[in-house]
Amino acid sequence: MTIQKSTTHKGLLTAVMMLSFTYVSAQPSTYAGPQSVLIKNGLVKTITQGDLPNTDVYIVNGIIQGIGQELSAPGNIPVIDATGKVVMPGIIDAHSHLNTVSTNEATSPVTAEITIKESIDPNDVAMYHALAGGVTTINLMHGSANVIGARNATLKLRYGADQFGLQFQEAPQTIKFALGENPTRVHGQGTGVQPRTRMGVERVIRDIFDDAIEYDRQRQAYLDQKEAHERRPNRVAPPVPVAMNLRLEVISDILKGNILVHCHSYRADEIVMLVNVFKEYGVENYTFQHANEAFKVAPELAEAGANASVFSDWWAYKFEVYYSTAYNAAILHENGVNTSINSDSNELIRHLNHEAAKVVRYGGISADDALAMITINPAKQLGIDDMVGSLEVGKHGDISIWSADPLSIYAVNEMTLVDGQVLFNREADVADARLDRAISYDQSFKDLQSEVSEAVRGRQDDACMEDAFILFESGLQTEQTHNH
Amino acid sequence: MTMNKKNNTFLSRSGWVVVMSLFLGFATVEAQITEKPQYGTFLIENVDIYPVTSDVIQGGVVVVKDGLIEYVGSNVKPDLTGDIIRIDGSGHRLYPGFIDSETQLGLNEIGAVAVTIDAAEVGSVNPEMIAQTAINPGSVSIPVTRVDGVTNVVAAPVSGLVSGTGSLIDLYGYTPEAMSIDQRAGIYINWPSSGKRGWWDSRSEKEIEKDYNEAIDQINELFDDARAYHTMWQAIESDELDAQPDVNAKMDAMRYLFTQDARLVVRVNREKDILAALEWATQQDDLSFVFSGVSEGWRVADKLADADIPVIATALVTPSRPSDHYARPYQNAGLMANAGVHVSLSTFNTENVRNLPFHAGYAATYGMGVEEALKAVTINPAEIWGVDDKLGSIDVGKHANLILVDGDPFETTSIIKDVFIRGYRIPMVSRHTQLNEEFLDRDATN
Prior knowledge:
Chain A is α/β, with parallel strands linked by helices. Chain A is built from 13 helices and 18 strands. Chain B is an alpha/beta fold. Chain B is about 30% helix and about 20% strand.
């Protein structure tokens, strides 16, 4: 697809653009801030308001200003002809480790003081590969080594921006929790620290919640007395200081509803456990990640208003996902649980449209509901559904444009826009999309076996466990090399 | 369609099986929880037949009898006698079952549970390790795979330099022998890599080169020995030589390579390594080669075509180098096929081998074309394994390994309605359908 300039100097501009294409062919386009663009005459899948044939989408400074027919824009606004194409919101992945530098700070069962915002690689070409699959927003998550891991970073794939520019600034803060085998293996079995069991996992959560409540009370009393003392030094005695504790501040923010929980979980029992704990402590608006057995407790999740973000069909890679079904998402959906399909994989993130289509195969939900699972539903889970996840006036100009129905295996994503800027254009695509080319061709080879060998040798972990076993490096070496 | 009713009966019964299995707990973990298949003479009519090796027949008829395809045509065969099970295929398509040439299906059960992993034996040279003996017919992944249209796989060992002998099986049967098509389909070797194995590989360039050269020497020595052993035994067997040498199980297993009964499957991915393996292969003119993996095969497609070595490739992986075009893994199979390479597609997986048709769909979309991609999951693998007289197309006399689909089988949203393996009409039931039946509406009662 080409971007045309609707201007009287069309010939000149075309010449300029052709020139720039020869130059651009060596480098991918990089983020340059919110842009204006008019997308003409596509089949617009709004997600929230149905499909609109032969419809234009007009984006001004990164925000959708109009959706309708025969829209016009000033001559200096680029026009994308989407005739015969499908225009849909950019895909949102509610579970990714796409461009983390490190994924797990596995040294303690609770590491709420850590943030993945300090572990973003802004040069990772995996972002471009995700853009090529139509993805515009991700939940860049901490791993699942800890019961309460780091705070996550909601990112917009503004390829070319730095680690600050990538952050979806208006998005609420989220945090990673993890139940089951991963935290019990890393801590209880790995270093002999509670939790080694699912009983221990619940206690870790309850204990830190209680600590945070007590801390918050003492800290607040101290701050109140400090303020009073400073106002009236002679009437109010100086308080005994209560040191600021970032870990407990963050936990306290969870309890106050300022931070949304995204909890790695698999088994129905542990899912219900957390529902009950959260009910007791008043935590709301949370999402179970993976949640392979969520289908077993779908009514409980629906009643609690909990969300689920699941794989389309991954299972059997560890014992806690052995009793899984690819019908998970459909069952959850039918029972009224807001459900998204995620990747947790730099491979799957490249074709989340295909992953969503599997929910139609396994459970027969409608095409619209399937597309909602990679757009508006994950947007709700990340608390950004007022800004992205559907095509509506006032929302961000984050868009993917497809050659055909995106649920078809023959559909190809042709363009991806973030904030109105085309950051992936199949027609003007570059062979080498890296921003940082310091690594040579020879050094960069990743053997297919290293990817498929997980399946080949038996996958030990999900992607969430990256870096978790650096602690036991010698053991890791043995494990990794026994294939050769 | 008449079979819909049949399917519903299966599904309502399956709920009970799940309930029972929950009571039995761990005892049933390895049990094949499913319904009985149907067997007999089947008349599948009004169906669009995609034979793969010949033109599509609209509204045709296929007769399945004694486990084989007895008739394929556009009109009902008149002289059918006895009990006939009629299946109305109106609005549906019939394809040969899909074949995945490199999986660990039946060998591995739960990835992270080491005691359930039988694909990786200790030791470096294990040609005598035969997958078939360790295939668990009760693997829960088997029904999950076949109800999505994959009827045959090669289960292959993975470890060491010479991993072992892979076996081609039907995904139906109560014993490994009953499932077997060819227990010695191929001996799988891991070509030594001239690169680092991963970020954790701390070897210097020199050490890597030394290790690589040692491994190549080891391969050469092994094949020299095996060749000598084979020649010796040929002489003994033809009474040219009177001797009673010690039997060597490893060398015995290698003999199947020289008799052309087993293929030598070389797992190799890196461009440089593919070229090295190609050079080595040209010096071994008494072996039938298959290259597997070949993630950088597109870089040397012409050379692979010239060498006339068939390949097993995949589609849904990330690019092998960060500098590669994002779509290269999707394109790899098509780029090789268009250069004239004989390509089969594989998932290289265990529990999600069911996704094979989607690998084909992506390869088709990104340059391979639907027709060639269809061959890459049917007749091409059948040819690789020398079983194209039994599998890979809908032709009279071949095994009745068939799938009935409500549309294009590569489309994610299509539904597989019926699967036949060796003439058995497989119940469309798996753990995944059973859990759906039980939990979709938890309050429903019988």
